[in-house]
Amino acid sequence: MAVAAIAQPRPSRQRERTMTVNLPTNLLRSFVAIVDAGSMLSATGQVFVTQSALSLQIRRLEELVNQTLFKREGRRLALTPAGELLLTFARRLLDMHDEAVLAVSSQDVAGPVRVGMVQDFADTLLAGALKSFAERYPNTRVFARVAGTAELLMMLDRHQLDVAVGFDSAEVQRAIRTAPMTWYGDPDLAQQDVVPLAVLEKPCRFREAAIASLEAAGVRYRISVETPNLSTLRAAVQARLGIACRTHLFPGNLAAVPPSLLPPLPAVACIVAKAADLDARCIRLEELIVEAVRTL
After folding, report:
1. Which of 22, 121, 182, 222 is deepest in the core (most CB within 10 A)?
2. pTM above threshold 0.85
3. Dihedral through CA 232, CA 237, CA 239, CA 240, nearest 10?
4. Does position 221 have pLDDT exceeding 70, yes or no?
């Protein structure tokens, strides 16, 4: 059985025309300027076009809406009913247009800046480099990750971070600066037959250096505290639960163990690694962090 096709009604010419018309903002701005100024001559200074060009713009706008927008009343221009109606919409459209331009141009829409750091640097960088960065780029969201160096470098390789701050061996070429490792804790603990150590969880360069140093010197030890958190490690040392190996960034109110009581430790490098193809914001953040690390 044949099925007759049902004819779909075509949109009216007016509807077709309305759907394809775009009103340029420069024409609307000129239209509003004439209304506000009271005449085309007075409006030329607001829109920076000549009177003849302004007249052509209004003629073009009238063609687009298919309506007369102005009428002569003596020597002055007055709005037609269509002009009155368009004026309301024109003001709203221009307000939204200007608001959108301001919002986009004043905001940083390139995404957050992602920085990772070991806990040793967190307090200093948050109060220093990141504070300076936020003053320069107040609308940029900063993603800050605190973790061990190995994890941070892995995140950098996976494009999950833009800049990473951590530790490496003192011999690396990318060292921003080097710092000596130091024993911190109660000297009485350092003189025990079996030295109690407070360490961070693996992998940890300081843990490895402490153990290697004690074993090379034949000093017996035991791990008394193991934690993933630097603040917990500091609290454990303050509570006399163990001795820790860190840099000068660690102490708080902790004193260093006299060098004669425990074997020497190696130096460590402070490094700042960065991803490739950084934008201007990330480059500036990396520069601020490098400056901060050099002065620590």
Report:
1. 121
2. no
3. 150
4. yes
Residues in Cβ contact with 30 at an 8 Å cutoff, skipping those fewer than 6 apart: 43, 47, 49, 54, 57, 58, 61
* φ/ψ (deg, to 5) at 2: -80, 140
Rounded distance between C-alpha atoms, residue 55 and residue 97, angstroms? 23
pLDDT of 18 reads 46
Residue 196, H or E segment: strand 195-200
Confidence band (pLDDT; 50, 70, 90) for 65?
A: very high
Helices marked H in the chain: 13-20, 25-37, 40-47, 51-65, 81-106, 119-127, 129-136, 149-157, 187-190, 205-217, 230-238, 280-295
Annotate 15-78 with three-state secondary structure: HHHHHHCCCCHHHHHHHHHHHHHCCHHHHHHHHCCCHHHHHHHHHHHHHHHCCCCEEEECCEEE
CATH 3.40.190.10 for domain 113-174+270-295: yes
Parse the chain into domains and list their residue ranges.
21-106, 113-174+270-295, 182-265
CA-to-CA distance for 121 and 296, rounded, in angstroms?
9
Mean pLDDT of 129-137: 86
Tell me if 281 sits within 8 A of 113, measured CB to CB.
yes
pLDDT at 50 over 60: yes
Half-sphere exposure of 57 (CA within 13 A, CB side): 23
Task: Please name the residue that has the structure tokens 């504070």.
Answer: 131
User: Does CATH place domain 21-106 in 3.40.1400.10?
Assistant: no
